[in-house]
Write a structure and sequence with these properties.
The protein contains eleven helices and eight strands. The protein is α/β, with parallel strands linked by helices and about 270 residues long. An eight-stranded mixed sheet has the order 3-2-1-4-5-6-7-8, sandwiched between helices. It is elongated, with a radius of gyration of 21 Å. The protein binds NADP nicotinamide-adenine-dinucleotide phosphate. The site of NADP nicotinamide-adenine-dinucleotide phosphate has 26 residues, from α1.
């Protein structure tokens, strides 16, 4: 059985550990974690039964697969700390946005896979994007896809598409929530409806729409079923189709520009 190490038990690292153990993707006894501030690692260990490593170096020494769950601008410093120990027999799975397989491979000899998880894995839903490095083995693919499959739907993609697709999976819970919030708020601006009620109605309808979508598997099908020709809903759909394309084009424009900025900052960090 492969021994799993997780470096960084923040929001995402913590969620992955909890879900991997809860779903049985990995046995708690096969997982250990390390974190810059020890208390956070202790808390997740107490909650899940995983082990705690005394240091990042100890963790790597005891692990076959190392999940790197620190912030993008913290990855290079971590890899420098681990210089010489991330050897070719180890697999690094980095969840850091914008840190490329090339960036990581330049600082270690381990095989490298990138994963972009989503907070939706908290409820075992949503997509984990995966890009395997050229030297990945069949065993790497099987381990990573099976673990992610227990907490999400893993979707393999070329690394060059990761950032754009991550907007549709990893950033999307925030985009969808903020869109739905604006929709609810719009009703409160027209009539004396409480924001709480408007939010509840939209939330319940969103949940119902997700269930409907599972049956029909197409956004267009749901639109057609509700927006009958010449009806009221059709008028609203026309507005969305007029206004939304430019909003989403602008959204992707600014998020892609931000990715470029972060990538530049990572490249500028001393190697
Ligand atoms: N949040 C999301 O929805 C999401 C989605 C997809 C991918 N990601 C990626 O996930 C990564 C982590 O994001 P996050 O939101 O989980 O951030 P976070 O909550 O700040 O967690 C990062 C953790 O890494 C620890 N850390 C930093 N440097 C370390 C080191 N050298 N050794 C050990 N531990 C170290 C930090 O420790 P301290 O307790 O000392 O701060 C912190 O607990 C990012 O690279 C991000 O791009 C996030």
């Amino acid at each position: 059985m492969a021994m799993i190490g997780v470096i960084g038990t923040g929001s995402m690292g913590g969620m992955l550990i909890r879900k991997f153990v809860e779903t049985g993707a990995f046995t708690a006894g096969d997982v250990m974690a390390s974190n810059r501030s020890a208390d956070k690692a202790k808390a997740i260990a107490a909650a899940t039964g995983i082990g705690i490593a005394g240091s990042n170096l100890d963790l790597v020494a005891a692990s076959d697969v190392i999940f790197i769950c620190v912030k993008p601008l913290e990855v290079k410093a971590l890899l420098k700390e681990l210089k010489g120990v991330l050897t070719a027999d180890k697999l690094v799975v980095s969840i850091a946005a914008d840190v490329t397989i090339g960036d990581i491979s330049a600082l270690c000899d381990a095989r490298v896979t990138r994963v972009i998880p989503s907070i939706t894995s908290e409820c075992s839903k949503g997509v984990s994007l995966v890009a395997f490095g050229d030297n990945s083995t069949e065993a790497d693919r099987s381990l990573v896809l099976s673990a992610l499959g227990s907490i999400s739907r893993p979707v393999e993609t070329e690394e060059e598409n990761l950032e754009l697709l991550a907007d549709l999976t990893s950033c999307a819970p925030a985009f969808i929530s903020s869109m739905m919030h604006e929709f609810a708020l719009s009703a409160t601006r027209r009539e004396n409806i409480s924001p709480g009620l408007a939010e509840l109605l939209v939330m319940e309808t969103l949940a119902g729409t997700v269930e409907l979508l599972k049956n029909v598997n197409s956004f267009e099908e749901v639109v057609t079923r509700v927006a009958t020709k010449g009806g009221i809903t059709e008028e609203g759909v026309k507005v969305i189709r007029k206004v939304a394309p430019s909003m989403y084009d602008e959204l992707l424009e600014v998020t892609m520009a931000k990715h470029d900025l972060v990538k530049d900052r990572i490249r500028d960090q001393a190697s």
